[in-house]
Amino acid sequence: MLLIGDDWAEDHHDVEVQDGDGRKLAVAKLPEGVEGIAKLHELVAKHGGKDEGLLDAAEVVVGIETDRGSWVQALIASGYQVYAINPRQVARFKERYASSGAKSDKGDAHALADMVRIDRDQLRPIAGDSEQAQAVKVVARAHQTLIWERTRTFQRLRSTLREYFPAALNAYADLTLTSTDALELLIKAPTPAAGAKLTRTQITTVLARARRHHRDAKAATIQAALRERQLGLAEPVTAAYAATATAHARLLIALNEQIAGLEGQVKAHFLKHPDAEIYLSMPGIAEITGARVLAEFGDDPTRYANAKARKNYAGTSPITRASGKSHTVQARYVRNNRLADALQTQAFSALRASPGARRYYDKQRAREAGYNPALRQVGNRLVGILHGCLKTRTRYDEATAWSHHAHPHAA
Question: Between the CA atoms of 258, 263, 266 and 270, what dihedral angle is there, to the nearest 10 degrees?
Fold first, then answer.
């Protein structure tokens, strides 16, 4: 068996090759791309020879700190066992060697090789997801990342307006400041003086392009709010703030555009997946949420041995901490945040869509569980139901899903 630690950078890979006993066989710096993969195969061929023939590809184990990209797919296509290892795990593992916190690419490659040799049973191999599932993952993650970026940009804009133009926050509160029409009005009048001069016709025209209802009433409210008296700043300072707010507003408009475009791509790729029908049958899941859950779980049928394994990966199942007389049950905080966010959204929506989910939630609350712990329990139960549906290739059925919790005294 050959163990390979692969520390990747933007344009190269530092690799270390070990044998099954941990002896260092080779260290190399490989270029990114086809040339680098070819040289890696040469290293495997050179050090993987046996008396009876070459080493089988499945006996080559690679540890790397990512599960995405053409390099990783090339490793999987070659038949190697590939383990994606969290960088934080690598950092903790390196503390076995020293506690100084020193870092080097060669040192990381050595740690990765050691990890797949010593702790391979504790690591998760990269799932063999289908090409369609990989496509869903790419667009779903990109879509969510842009939404997170929009939220950060909005917070910056809001903070800026509070410092020099608080009337704008009140004026556009009903429209929401991330909406394109509110941003267009802010760009048109980015200072208190310019805002006070906006006419009702100008405001109504922008609202009409956004197809707002009750435009005349909304325009009157916005105009009145913009004309309220407020504390002012020196003109050069106000102009500087206005330039900053305008830049943020233009960026938010661009983000709105790209988010809407990617949303269509997420839905299109998700609906082409053969599991989409099962996901959409689940309560609280629509196309975007379903795409995010599918993207993070993947579709490799061998990845989760049972429902418990899927729940553990989802981070919805609690963990127990026991030491001496202390015994506590806590939520999992080290988890896939993208998946946790999607499952939280599903669980919240399921309270209205599923009577069974609502009864189960109320039962947890009756046991004095807080809002978030009770919602996590609903999400945990829904993950188990999803696992069963995917395993049996059946759609969600309300009566079957909650049959064990239908009786008022059921656990």
Answer: -170
Q: State how far Cα 111 lies from the chain centre.
A: 27
Q: Two tokens at 359?
A: 């009864």
Residue range 191-250, pLDDT digits in tens: 999 999 999 999 999 999 999 999 999 999 999 999 998 888 899 999 999 999 999 999
The C-alpha atoms of residue 218 and residue 204 are separated, in whole angstroms, by: 8
**Segments making up each domain of the chain, as ranges:** 2-126, 136-267, 277-405
Whole-angstrom CA distances from 37 to 55, 71, 140, 199 are 17, 8, 28, 64
Amino acid at 145: T
CA distance 355 to 377: 15
Average pLDDT, the chain: 89
Distance CA 283, CA 347 (A): 8
SS3 125: strand
Q: Which of 2-11, 56-65, 116-125, 392-401 has the highest mean pLDDT?
A: 392-401
CATH of domain 2-126: 3.30.420.140
Q: What is the mean pLDDT of residues 153-168?
A: 95
What percentage of the chain exceeds 70 in pLDDT? 91
Tokens encoding 178 = 């991330």
Q: H-helix or E-strand containing 31?
A: strand 24-31
- What is the structure's pLDDT at 232? 86
